[in-house]
């Protein structure tokens, strides 16, 4: 189990490594979703390296903290983090999306460390709720983390789950909302406005923490604060930049679901050195 | 007249029994626990029961999350909502994950009665049958409901169990229940009548009337729709050359289609479908509706007489 605590600077360096892997995997695969993988990289790196309790040698360890990626299309990020955390060798990453690979185009339980499939948006918060309730039934103290997208909260299922998580006082549950402001067809505010996000979640009975999702100190403080609340679930609404870390991808809607070419990948990797 | 019981009463009692045997059993409902009878479990085991309110999509995916942590989750609501309202959650979060989620859907079929078309699930078997990994049981009476619930608890993976709203007569002498193995109820080589759920009672009546006319019908209770007992169907196809498939469901996608697929691939014979012929239901008493939608024993008899050579 966890995990030597990294300093914010060490976490940032790890995140840069993970961003490099994401670019390399996607360029190799020739398809996939860089934008949202890169926007959530700092959040998920900090989670796995400093917060989450797990044992890569025993992925089914009953007392492990749970993480679920509800916005499943960002699985390149998840896979890179799992590999960097010791769940499987890094070389496996370059089989992403290939026939016979354990790294499917969207999450699948055949990947060590993946608890549940996702890919159809809106279901993951409910999955996390189920995990949270299981901890209650079993009187276990593990915590449950789930990554949501901002486009994803347009799904009705999210709000059914939001209501239920508060109703069942799931203080062991922490949602992380990657608020990068973009979805496939454009800016969220133009396609289907999701604001005011903080007020919505507050009204649903959640503790809301708003942070800059690329500032490691703020991220770590938010995870700490989430643990202190009693009788309420927590959502960390993290302002992020889609495609973060690669200048020509940042804020570019087109890189939601398009892999970089080999040439673009080379340029990106240079920026991420 | 045989004893008449509610399948859902037996379901509720079976859940309580399971709950005391196995601490891993968790039950979810969507504001229908007094109708589905999961309230019996809720009363006994309040810490393992979660009422999810009127939010079936959340309920199904929550069940998946619980199952991912090793729970065996029974989840109940009406069949229309369990199959249709939350189908994608059942597909991705339950079936694809191959989790131990047992969907027990009540109020299936036309005999829901006065609530009318919106509440009469005539498509649910079809919707569940196309999902890889999904097991489907349609018990014919109350006693078989307990068998189905126990089979679902004992066997890994997702299940869909289809129950009715109304009381159904208990069918005597049907022999032991074996998951995945259909039951031969009457012997005969003139025609095969295959039925599931409450239509087994109608089929028994039809078989009796046909016997009085000198026609010996082989009656099979196909309680398990998936995995289907292909052997008993092929044997019947070969030995009787005519199959009448009876179900309280649309003729598309349910039991009849399952039989069609098996015989078409292996030993084509005529399969006549007694079911709802691609219409929505309507309000009425169950008996009136069975007649209007040609699901009565008389309709089965007619189908046999019109097609037997």
Give me the secondary-structure topology:
The complex is a heterodimer of chains A (273) and B (309).
Chain A: H1 8-29, H2 34-39, H3 41-51, E1 66-69, H4 75-84, H5 124-138, E2 144-149, H6 156-167, E3 173-179, E4 182-183, E5 186-187, H7 188-191, H8 197-203, E6 207-212, H9 216-228, E7 234-239, H10 262-271
Parallel strand pairs in A: 1-2, 2-3, 3-7, 6-7
Antiparallel strand pairs in A: 4-5
Helix pairs in contact in A: 1-3, 1-4, 1-10, 3-4, 3-9, 5-6
Chain B: E1 4-6, H1 7-21, E2 25-29, H2 33-36, H3 39-44, E3 49-51, H4 56-68, E4 72-78, H5 79-85, H6 87-96, E5 101-106, H7 124-129, E6 135-137, H8 142-154, E7 159-162, E8 167-169, E9 183-186, E10 191-195, H9 199-212, E11 217-221, E12 224-226, H10 230-240, E13 242-250, H11 255-266, E14 270-276, H12 286-292, H13 297-307
Parallel strand pairs in B: 2-3, 2-4, 4-5, 5-7, 6-7, 10-11, 10-13, 13-14
Antiparallel strand pairs in B: 1-8, 6-12, 9-11
Helix pairs in contact in B: 1-8, 4-6, 9-13, 10-11
């Amino acid at each position: 189990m966890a995990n030597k605590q990294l300093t914010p600077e060490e976490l940032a360096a790890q995140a840069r490594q993970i961003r490099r892997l994401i670019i390399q995997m996607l360029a190799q695969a020739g398809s996939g979703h860089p934008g949202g993988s890169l926007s959530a990289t700092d959040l998920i790196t900090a989670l796995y390296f400093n917060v989450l309790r797990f044992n890569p040698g025993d992925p089914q360890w009953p007392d492990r903290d749970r993480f679920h990626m509800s916005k499943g299309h960002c699985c390149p990020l998840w896979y890179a983090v799992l590999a960097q955390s010791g769940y499987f060798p890094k070389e496996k990453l370059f089989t992403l999306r290939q026939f016979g690979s354990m790294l499917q185009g969207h999450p699948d339980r055949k990947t060590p460390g993946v608890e549940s499939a996702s890919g159809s948006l809106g279901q993951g918060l409910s999955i996390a709720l189920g995990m949270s309730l299981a901890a209650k039934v079993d009187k276990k103290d593990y915590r449950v983390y789930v990554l949501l997208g901002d486009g994803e909260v347009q799904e009705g299922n999210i709000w059914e789950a939001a209501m239920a998580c508060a109703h069942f006082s799931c203080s062991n549950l922490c949602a992380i909302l990657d608020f990068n402001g973009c979805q496939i067809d454009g800016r969220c505010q133009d396609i289907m406005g999701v604001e005011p996000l903080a007020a919505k979640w507050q009204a649903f009975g959640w503790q809301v923490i708003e942070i800059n999702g690329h500032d490691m100190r703020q991220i770590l403080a938010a995870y700490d604060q989430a643990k202190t609340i009693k009788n309420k679930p927590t959502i960390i609404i993290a302002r992020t930049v889609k495609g973060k870390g690669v200048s020509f991808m940042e804020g570019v809607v087109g890189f939601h679901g398009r892999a970089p070419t080999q040439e673009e990948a080379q340029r990106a990797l240079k920026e991420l050195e | 007249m045989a004893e008449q019981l509610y399948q859902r009463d037996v379901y509720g009692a079976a859940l309580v029994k399971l709950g005391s045997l196995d601490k891993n059993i968790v039950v979810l409902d969507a504001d229908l626990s007094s109708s589905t009878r999961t309230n019996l479990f809720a009363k006994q085991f309040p810490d393992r029961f979660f009422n999810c309110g009127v939010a079936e999509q959340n309920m199904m995916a929550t069940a998946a999350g619980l199952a991912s942590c090793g729970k065996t989750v029974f989840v109940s609501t009406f069949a229309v909502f369990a199959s249709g309202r939350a189908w994608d959650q059942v597909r991705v979060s339950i079936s694809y994950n191959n989790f131990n989620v047992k969907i027990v859907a009540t109020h299936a079929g036309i005999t829901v009665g006065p609530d009318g078309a919106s509440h009469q699930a005539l498509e649910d078997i079809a919707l569940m049958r196309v999902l890889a990994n999904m097991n489907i049981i349609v018990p014919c009476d109350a006693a078989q409901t307990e068998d189905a619930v126990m089979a679902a608890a004992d066997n890994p993976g997702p299940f869909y169990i289809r129950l009715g709203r109304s009381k159904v007569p208990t069918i005597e002498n049907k022999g032991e229940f074996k998951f995945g193995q259909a039951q031969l109820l009457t012997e005969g080589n003139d025609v095969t009548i295959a039925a599931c759920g409450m239509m087994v009672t109608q089929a028994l009546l039809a078989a009796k009337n046909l016997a009085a006319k000198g026609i010996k019908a082989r009656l099979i209770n196909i309680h398990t729709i998936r995995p289907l007992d292909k052997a008993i169907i092929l044997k019947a196809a070969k030995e009787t050359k005519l199959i009448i498939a009876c179900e309280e469901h649309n003729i598309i996608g349910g039991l009849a289609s399952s039989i069609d697929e098996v015989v078409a691939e292996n030993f084509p014979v005529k399969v006549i479908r007694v079911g709802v012929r691609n219409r929505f239901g309507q309000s009425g008493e169950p008996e009136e509706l069975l007649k209007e939608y040609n699901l009565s024993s008389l309709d089965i008899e007619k189908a046999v007489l019109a097609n037997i050579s």
